[in-house]
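Blinded run. Sample ID left blank on purpose so nobody reads anything into the name before looking at the predicted structure. Input follows.
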Amino acid sequence: MLSGLTIQCCLVILDNMKVRIDLHGADPVWRQIADQVRAHLVEGRLLPGTRLATVRELALDLGVNHNTVATAYNKLAEEGFLRLVRGVGAEVVEREAPRAAKGDQQRFASRLAALLAEARAAGLSPSVLQSILRNAIGGLS
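Blinded prediction complete.
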């Protein structure tokens, strides 16, 4: 058994964007794919009209079941990021920024606090975490 196996694959040809999956990670593979594609979308690296790899293409490239990729794409379509066309693939669509639902701020603050505690427990210093947060926030502009 290969521990910590990481597979990389080109998601789209533009800007040489990649999706990394960890078959032994805590998060399901479909969530890893959705989270990374969502990050590209939110950071503006995937513009409206961009076509993503088809479900089957990405599944073959990643070496996962096509249903795994379909689940990730469907989640992003439900969130309003993608338009899915059977036999054609997924296309990035224009999406207005949603209004935060009641309780979202507290929910995200709690998740962030837990993640920061995990990072500190792993030995990351506050200055390193601040730098990581600044870079992440800078990518959202």
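Unblinding after everyone has recorded impressions. DSSP finds five helices and four strands in the chain.
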